[in-house]
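Quick start: what a row looks like.
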Amino acid sequence: MLSIIWGILKIIGIVILAVLGILLVLILIVLFVPLRYEGRTAGRFTAGETDEGNLEGGSAYCARFRVSWLLRIVTVRVRADENGVKYKIKLFGIPIRSSEKKETAGEESREESIHVSMPDEAVGQRQYGNSEELEEPLTAQSLGNEMREEEPDRLLEEKEERGFFRKLTVKVICFFRKLAEKFKDFFRRIQYTYGKFRDKIKKAGEKFHLVRDFLEDEENKEMFHFLWAKGKKALKHIFPRKLSGSVAFSLEDPAATGRVLMGLGFLYPFLKDRIRVTPLFENRNHVSGELNFKGRIRAFSLLIIAMRVWFNKKFRAFMKRGQKLRENLS
């Protein structure tokens, strides 16, 4: 019985060790097998007149990019030109994803006619009759009645006049009161805005002093230099190991072409003899050239750089100071 249990445990242990070994091998492959990339680009842009005086213009470009990993078991190809971008992903040489689509039969377009029915116009005729006014005959009795009715009307008119002047006086007083309240409210707003602006200026000054003290701190300066050195090392690892190409350019103003060439002279320590730059000094805008590059990226190298930064005690203290600065600024 014990031998059976021991045999089962031995099998389980062997399986676990095999799984762990496979995982370890996969991790080592991911860390140490580099991701290789290469590409080639070529293009041309022209606008202006040729030497013969003919107008010329147009642009054309083509770019190819390939990424492969683990002896090209996984391959990604990308091509871009005026027609668009196309890509293809292969696994063991078998396409598993591609931007190319099979052409399907075109569907017949159907044109739908839209008929708008106009509503019938309703024709109606309207007849207007002339109303006749009936006038009553004027008599002495009716004249007396009118005189008696005029007296209370005159009294009402006098009351209405007195009420009108009283209402007008009240409206004028209310208008000036409202105008005074608006002026007071306007000056209160100006005072509030000025106080708010002054507080913002004061807070901005305090934040400026906090940021300045953070940047001028000697430990922070040392950490900035450390991060810059590690960042350059990472970029150097990612940057293509093989780079070659040529560029020819011209501007409408030959003097501008010379100034651009002078500015490109500052990039010579980086480009060296790998990229040739040729000025044409033609009276037109023209740029043409090609670029070939090839490089690799190893995850283990980037991981080592990241670990050296992360496990640095000064970097952790720097991150704490940065967190404190962010809290003070917020």
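That is the whole record. The radius of gyration is 45 Å. The first helix runs from residue 2 to 32.
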